[in-house]
């Protein structure tokens, strides 16, 4: 996963890490921060949720999760 792109896409939507954490169902931003730091693996359900929240198109999804 391209964590730099994840941060860029989140900032483009003007969401804070705390907002992303809440929308993903985490209790606090610490768990979400681990995703942005690349320390947590992102399973398909989580990838889908992130893609929906950030309103990513197919090209952006491929670049974010598959480095294409």
UniProtKB/TrEMBL annotation:
SUPFAM superfamilies referenced in this protein's UniProt entry, alphabetically: lambda repressor-like DNA-binding domains
One Gene Ontology molecular-function label: DNA binding
SMART domains the UniProt entry points to: HTH_XRE
InterPro entries registered for this protein in UniProt: Cro/C1-type_HTH, Lambda_DNA-bd_dom_sf
HTH cro/C1-type domain segment(s): 6-61
Highest taxon of the lineage: Bacteria
Protein name (record): Helix-turn-helix domain protein
């Amino acid at each position: 996963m391209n964590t730099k792109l994840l941060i860029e896409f989140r900032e483009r939507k003007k969401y804070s890490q705390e907002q992303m954490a809440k929308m993903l169902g985490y209790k606090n931003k610490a768990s979400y921060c681990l995703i942005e730091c690349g320390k947590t693996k992102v399973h398909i359900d989580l990838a889908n949720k992130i893609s929906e929240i950030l309103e990513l198109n197919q090209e952006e999804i491929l670049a974010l999760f598959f480095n294409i």
